[in-house]
Specification:
Largest sheet: 3 strands, antiparallel
Oligomer: single chain
Number of helices: 22
Strand order of the largest sheet: 4-7-6
Radius of gyration: 39 Å
Number of domains: 6
Distance between the termini: 96 Å
Mean pLDDT: 88
């Protein structure tokens, strides 16, 4: 059996060369020996060699005999030193990262920076090269970062990227995106990710979505304010009109501002993109924007109040009219604001129509007397009113929507309550003398019903009886607990 003996490495006796020095030795590794040790390290210790483990060292010696047919006669300290030279130390382990691997890492980085890039994000570099890096024993992103720091000591390193700048991620992303944007007005996620090889897609999406200088135009497509053409004259006219309207009314819809030829000149942009660009370029320093509504900075924006003012000013409107105004004010439709505004100010005469109070003539005393004929136990679901023949004429045809409006705003003896404003006629007509809240009313109704107190059964009962507008309710557990107490007390 051959041996990797003490003769293989070159030994220089310092004492021989310098008589005044103490007797010590400096070991210069023999390249041939290192190649053999590196072979064992890469083949048998793919997950790393723990540098301070006697057990690992014994395994290393046995693998050398088994794989190479040679015995290592170096001391433990010398062998450990040799193994450390064979690879890269990371987290207490030695990995067989070759010089060729490090050069490949260096080359890819230099080629990318040579194209004008300023930064590389660690996560994306590792993800794009993970297959060959893992095979080359670069087992993690953190280990890659250590190697990059060693290869590029003069570059700036942050927690997420390295390169020729240490600016904020916000600034870096905008600069890198604009660097590859080109002359086009619009760019997509796909186009940008192809050009920004080492910036993660989610970083690009966040930059486009959260940086106000980027303007959303359509699905996954953006512009930048630097690509939008608005003249100084147009900017001044828009600012003056916005201030004038806000001083007079407290707000202005962006659609009511003088756009001049902005839309025609920026024909590649969607109308939404034009609106957002006009706000960002002309108004953002002095105004706030929510949906399509512009207000002065510092002014409190209240969509419900604005919608109530609208309702006070009209004789008649449809539910769709209210939804469209809500969409214009907030940018979305959640229905609750429309329902609350309409129900608070107007009279809902059917599912689709609201009218001003003067178009309905309620004889309150007589109507309350009729309702009293139906409500015997303090409350009754709205849907339990199935006939309106006894109700006096009010100028509109009686129905559940009209009855709800009456109980909400006009009745002296009754009130109306529901889990939320809705168009499903879900809710309860309640005597004003009844002090139960809505959850307690539902619990009382469940306790009085001949049903098992099971979640599904109770939820279905409340839905089918008209107490809720959905077949499930978040408070079913609380209702069941209260219903059990009521039944126990009555028994």
């Amino acid at each position: 059996m051959r041996s990797l003996s003490r003769i293989s490495p070159h030994r220089i006796d310092v004492a021989d060369e310098n008589p005044s020095a103490s007797a010590s030795h400096v070991i210069i590794p023999d390249p041939a020996v290192l190649d053999k040790l590196r072979h064992i390290l890469s083949k048998r210790f793919k997950n790393g060699f723990r540098i301070d483990s006697p057990i690992e060292l014994a395994r290393f010696r046995s693998f050398t005999v088994k794989d190479l047919g040679e015995e290592i006669l170096l001391s433990d300290q010398e062998l450990t030193s040799y193994i450390a030279v064979c690879g890269t130390i990371f987290d207490g382990k030695v990995y067989a990262v070759s010089v060729q691997t490090k050069e490949r890492i260096r080359k890819l980085v230099e080629e990318y920076f040579a194209k004008g890039a300023q930064v590389i994000f660690f996560a994306e570099y590792y993800a794009k090269n993970e297959n060959w890096l893992s095979e080359a024993s670069v087992i993690s992103q953190d280990m890659l970062i250590d190697i990059l720091r060693m290869l590029f000591p003069k570059l700036s390193f942050t927690q997420t990227y390295f390169g020729y700048t240490d600016a904020s991620v916000f600034a870096v992303l905008e600069n890198e995106i604009l660097r590859v944007w080109g002359d086009d007005v619009l760019r997509t996620y796909t186009q940008l990710t192809e050009r920004l090889q080492y910036i993660p897609l989610d970083r690009i999406k966040n930059a486009l979505g959260q940086n106000g200088n980027f303007i959303w135009s359509s699905m996954e497509t953006f512009s930048h304010i630097s690509r939008v053409s608005i003249t100084e004259e147009e900017r001044g006219a828009i600012r003056k009109a916005a201030m004038r309207k806000c001083n007079a009314d407290g707000y202005v819809s962006i659609t009511d501002l003088p756009f001049g030829e902005i839309e025609e000149r920026n024909y590649e942009l969607s109308i939404t993109a034009v609106h957002n660009a006009v706000y960002q370029i002309c108004l953002s320093n002095r105004f706030d924007k929510k949906g399509k509504i512009i207000t002065r900075k510092g002014d409190v924006f209240d969509a419900l109040t604005i919608m109530k003012e609208y309702c006070r000013a009209v004789d008649k409107c449809s539910f769709d009219d209210l939804l469209n105004i809500e969409r214009e004010l907030t940018g979305v439709v959640r229905r609750k604001i429309s329902l609350e505004a309409g129900s608070s100010i107007l009279v809902r005469i059917d599912k689709d129509t609201y009218v001003a109070d003067r178009y309905v003539h309620f004889n309150v005393d007589k109507i309350d007397e009729v309702i009293e004929l139906f409500v015997k136990d303090g409350y009754l679901p709205l849907k339990s009113f199935t006939t309106f023949g006894a109700f006096p004429d009010c100028g509109q045809e009686w129905n559940l929507f009209l009855l709800e409006s009456y109980c909400r705003r006009f009745s002296r003896r009754f009130r109306f309550d529901a889990p939320t404003f809705n168009s499903r006629n879900a809710g309860v007509v309640i005597c004003k003398s009844c002090r139960l809240n809505y959850t307690e009313i539902m619990a009382d109704a469940v306790a009085n019903a001949d049903i098992p107190l099971k979640s599904t059964i109770v939820s279905n009962f409340l839905y089918e009886s008209g107490y809720t507008g959905r077949s499930t309710t978040a408070k079913v557990g609380e209702i069941i607990v209260k219903a059990k107490v009521i039944r126990k007390r009555r028994n």
